[in-house]
Amino acid sequence: MSDRMTRLQRRPRILGALAIAALVVAILPVVGRAADPDYPPGDSGYHSYPEVAAELAALERAHPEILHVRAIGRTAEGRPILLAKITDGANDPADEGEPEVLVDGLHHAREHLSAEAALDLVRFLVERYGESSPVGRRVTRLVDERVIWVVPMLDPDGLAYDLSAPVRPWGPGGASWYAAWRKNRQPIPGSSAVGLDLNRTWGYRWGCCGGSSGIPASENYRGTRPWQAPEVRVLRDFVLSRIVDGRQRIRTHASLHTTGELVLYPWAYTRADRGPEMTRLDLSAFRLLARRMAAQAGYRAMQSSAMYPTDGDMIDWMYARQRIHSFTLELSPARGAIATSDRYYLPDERLPGLLRRPRAALLTLIEAAGCPWSLTRAASQWCGTFADDLEGGSGWTVDPAGTDDATVGIWRRADPRPDGLQPGRVRSGRDALVTGPAPDDPVRDGTTSVRSPTFLIPAEGTTTVRLAWWLGLGAGTGPGDGLTIRIVAEDPAIEPQVLLAVAGNGSPRVARLRNLAIALDPRFAGERVALELIAYAAPGSGSLEAGVDDVRVATEPESAG
After folding, report:
1. What's the 3-state SS for 89-156?
2. What is the pLDDT of residues 80-110, one digit of tens each?
């Protein structure tokens, strides 16, 4: 292996003024901190934090039309956390609404290969873009149709410590140049220990289930509260910033780790395969996509907890709170497959082969952002014009016209209770849009409405709206009490289409889940529309409850005849 200087000379070194300025900001040492250490000569094929910053700056200079690099926050020791954005028109502030993908590396400091794989993905995408080869055409299409975000190093503080530590014994095979450090470098108040495990501090099921440690000296220390690590807060805040018009733009995600050659999917905190928060459809989508990525990389697919349970894990939070189809990729061979001394610190001569294997899997993940359910049998319905299982906050607007006058039973996403007016179950998962989940908050004396995000109806083909619905009516309800579901166009000149109108007849009505499937009128072709739900109760009448779940709008092309 050549020495470090020769290696650096092989990399792009000609930077424009803007790239140089960005690089200086990125790697400028924090006051009182020594310069970041480099890898030892024998592992010079790996990238230290300043080298990652330099390579990203050089790639941005060479490919400014599809790559933009910026810092999204700082680590515990003050290093900027760098984010690469890859898409056509990467510097264009205009938002085209394209599906988005997030990939992150180096949650854990000693997992050097994870940072290399994240950087390799950036390099591969920008350098193959525009090529006429089959791979180049695929990359070009994905970059043009997606927004791909990559954080190569979430824990550069931990990496710097790992590289600066004195040589220590590491198994019978010899010695390691590194500290075998896992956590960040955050001081722990009241303890001489340092660092939190960044993949145990996410705010879903934090500390719940024996999958982390409350002991500061432990490698899996979770801290005293969720979100305690600044690096995790930075990445969380970026993910939350991708909620646009109430809908999360990031659709798929991979967190890169070592070791094991695995593709892992939620849940990490429990061995239960689904639980109330995951729909059967999502479980199927997770399994099918994980198996495909694993086959492409030569890995194995499994539920994360099958490796070992972890709580406060990133992929659980990404799915449970953001409905992002999130995976952990364990990149290098497992314990027993190689010498213990190499389990985290593989020789750099092996990098080309180790980096090549997950590339196809990551391209598949980027492709799947268009529709994470594309491999399932339900793809024709769920990969259409608009789909929402109502399991996450997804941009529905209560009282969109500002004319509602109901004071109880307002529409919201919730788990309905079985009380006669609510069925006590939903079509899938746990939640639905309901007018009141508890027995003491039905709609009375007024109207409550809620409207979906807008979506574009294709100009050609037959568009069908499908959903599950129910309506429960109490004693004393009549024609002035009921539920209306309609399609409303952004263009006020286009009359709404009523899809469902159900009213009382003086008799009680027990809520029961029903299916609706109805074709849209051709006047909506090529128009932006929204689905609107209206529940209404006449003054002095009885009470009612309504709900809607599993909304799907799909367009079938016209038959050739």
Report:
1. CCCCCCCCCCCEEEEECCCCCCCHHHHHHHHHHHHHHHHHCCCCCHHHHHHHHHHHHCEEEEECCCCH
2. 999 999 999 998 887 888 999 999 999 999 9
What span, in angstroms and rounded, lies between the C-alpha atoms of 421 and 401?
27
The tokens 């020791």 sit on which residue? 77
Q: Quick one: tokens of 87? A: 């898409």
**Sequence-distant (≥ 6) Cβ neighbours of residue 295 within 8 angstroms:** none
Q: Tally Cβ neighbours within 10 Å of residue 268.
A: 30
pTM: 0.91
Where in the sequence numbering do the catalytic residues fall? 330
pLDDT, tens digit, 9 for 90 and up, residues 27-38: 444 433 558 999
Q: 519: closest CA among 499, 539, 538, 534? A: 499
Strands 168-169 and 175-176: antiparallel
Please give the structure tokens belonging to residue 495: 């009359």
Question: Both tokens of residue 175?
Answer: 């010695």
Q: Are strands 462-473 and 514-519 parallel, antiparallel or unpaired?
A: antiparallel
Alpha helices in 396-504 (DSSP H): none
**If residue 72 lies in a helix (H) or strand (E), which one and from where to where?**
strand 67-74
Note the helical H segments in 246-392: 280-297, 304-307, 314-322, 351-368, 379-382
Instruction: Give the SS3 label for residue 252.
Output: strand
Domains of the chain by start residue, with CATH: 4-257+340-363 (3.40.630.10), 386-556 (2.60.120.200)
Q: Assign 561 a pLDDT band (cuts: 50, 70, 90).
A: very low
Q: Give the separation between CA 143 and CA 217, rounded to whole angstroms.
A: 43
User: What would the pLDDT profile of 328-353 be if each residue is shown by its tens digit?
Assistant: 999 988 655 555 556 788 889 999 99
At residue 560, does pLDDT exceed 70? Answer: no
**Among 94, 90, 73, residue whose Cα is nearest residue 82:** 73
**Cis amide bond preceding 373, omega within 30:** no
Which SS3 state, helix, strand or coil, does residue 513 take?
coil
With contact defined as beta carbons under 8 Å apart, do 329 and 256 qualify? Answer: yes
